[in-house]
Amino acid sequence: MRKTIACCIICKNEEALIARCLESVKWTDAIYVCDTGSTDSTISIAKKYTDNICLSFIWVDSFQLAQNHCKSHAKEDWILSIDSDEILLSTEEEVRAAIEQAKDTVRVTMCSEHDKNSFGFARIFRNTPEIYWEQDIHKHLNVPGEGEDIGNIKIQYGYSPAHQNDPDRALRILQKTVKEEKNPVRNLYYLAREYWYKERYWEAIDVFNRYFKVSNWAAEVADGYLIQAKCYLELEKIEECAAAALQAIKINSNFKEALEFMAYIAIKDNKPQWERMSRTANNQNVLWCRTEAEQPNDVILLSPHNDDEALFASFICMRERPLVIVVTDSAIQPERGDLGCTAEIRRQETIEAMKIAGCPVVFLGIKDTELNEEILRERLKAFRPGIVYIPALQGGNAQHDLVNKVGLELFGDKCDQYTTYTKTELYTEGTREIKPTPAELEIKNQMLDCYKSQLALPSTAPHFLAVKNESEWLI
Predict the structure, then answer these.
(1) How far apart are CA 35 and CA 373, in angstroms?
(2) In angstroms, what CA-CA distances link 289 with 117, 119, 212, 256, 299?
(3) What is the rounded (10 degree) CA torsion for 143, 146, 148, 150?
(4) Is the dihedral of CA 402, 403, 405, 406 positive or negative?
(5) Order of strands across the sheet with 78-81?
(6) Could you read off the pLDDT of 347-397 as tens digits, one per residue?
(7) How far apart are CA 181 and CA 175, in angstroms?
(8) How far, in Å, CA of 441 to CA of 318, rounded?
(9) 8 A C-beta contact, residue 196 and residue 230
(10) For residue 89, what are the contacts with CB-CB under 8 A and spacing of at least 6?
């Protein structure tokens, strides 16, 4: 049986925005509007979309009461809750498909109209007395979590000019709520954040310190430390600022905005490393994604052959953890009669070596007998990295030089060149040369040992043995 959907909205003096909101949800089976005292044309606009308008609710600084009052009028199977300054971006078909799969709630991705901020929120839910709104401000449903992760429903939110009619409303409600709650936790976070908005920095810092003592929600605590760091920065308390930001990163090393903030406040020598870390952060488990994450593997290393990542780039791999892209599979050696070097064996050896280094690895699958500029350019053009490690130009190994050329053409100043071979062979200096620690040399030895097929060949074993316990650029 087809499940019916009601849209529930509370509003006051939203004549500037309510039409576009209602236009985005006019396909629903019914729209219910609870007006809390409009004096502009909000009601007349709403009447163009629905006859279900409640004018009897009296506003008492409680969003949960208003939302639940509106919900009580709905008779449909499911409810879509939306605010007047929001727009449903998803289609009717997408919403109905999600409801068909859901048990009680559907997670909605809330996307900012003005910046890159986004977060998850249960805004679609089964219409039952057991599910209702809680909290006078920053309302949420009484069910745990952010809704069932089904489909990809999106709502765009913005800022209503009606907020200027009562700019202190949120602060007023939060101060009252924190005072009345026996054991306030999350509302302490929101109160501190509101003080930050109002540029009342010391009050924000003090309330955050109260909050940190009682909260165990890691994502929110990390966000609180970052906001506290920003407060300290405004007060020119740099040591306290850095300490708070580091706490945020300690809780979540994938917190991109916190890493970017550390790069912003860091001294010149430390800034590049914080920037490098921020580029690989993916915002996993971040509460509010105010900074858009790039591809998780936006640092890549181009390895011409299926062993160069251990022979020449092992220290970059273990320090930078790039996505290792192996350009070619071995065909030359098997075709000239060498044994134990099939492409599949070499791939497995590389996978094992990269596990030791801690690097993900992908294979372009180009035979080393068929590599050319055109095919390499085609395979690499889809990548959007922030940093690219390429083999330094040699003039001796044609395939290394080809990877260098195409890498520079595609990625330009994002490229950093690593040294290949040794001084007694085709040695060339790269811009990326590392003096390893004894512990790193031992890891490199373990990586080299993975290439048993190479160590068994008279033509390659000497070179593998030559770089054991050594960094090739020092030989």
Answers:
(1) 65
(2) 5, 6, 21, 9, 21
(3) 150
(4) positive
(5) 53-54, 30-35, 5-11, 78-81, 118-126, 105-112, 154-157, 86-88
(6) 999 999 999 998 999 999 898 889 999 999 999 987 878 889 999 876 667
(7) 10
(8) 11
(9) yes
(10) 24, 111, 154, 155, 156
Question: What are 167's two structure tokens?
Answer: 């700019």
Provide CB contacts within 8 A for 472, sequence distance 6+: 311, 312, 419, 420, 421, 422, 427
Q: What tokens does 354 get?
A: 């990269």
The backbone torsions φ and ψ at residue 11, rounded to the nearest 5 degrees and listed phi first, read -160, 160
C-alpha separations of 35 from 11, 43, 327 in Å: 5, 8, 63
Sign of CA dihedral 190, 194, 199, 203: negative
Cα(445)–Cα(459) distance, rounded to whole angstroms?
Answer: 19
- Sign of dihedral through CA atoms 395, 475, 303, 386? negative
Structure tokens at 5: 């959907």
How many other CB atoms are there within 10 angstroms of residue 462's CB atom? 9
Token representation of residue 472 = 């090739």
Taking the C-alpha atoms of residue 323 and residue 361, their distance in angstroms, rounded to an integer, is 6
Judge contact between 410 and 380, C-beta under 8 A.
yes
- Helix runs in 181-270, H state only: 186-197, 201-214, 218-234, 238-251, 256-265
Give the CA angle between residues 140, 52, 139 to the nearest 5°. Answer: 10
Task: Return d(Cα 261, Cα 245) in angstroms, integer.
Answer: 8
What is the total residue count of the chain? 475
- The amino acid sitting at 299 is V
CB-based contact 328:371 (threshold 8 Å):
yes
Report residue 207 as tokens.
């309330």
- Segment 98-125, tens digit of pLDDT: 999 999 999 999 998 887 788 899 999 9
Q: What's the whole-model pTM score? A: 0.64
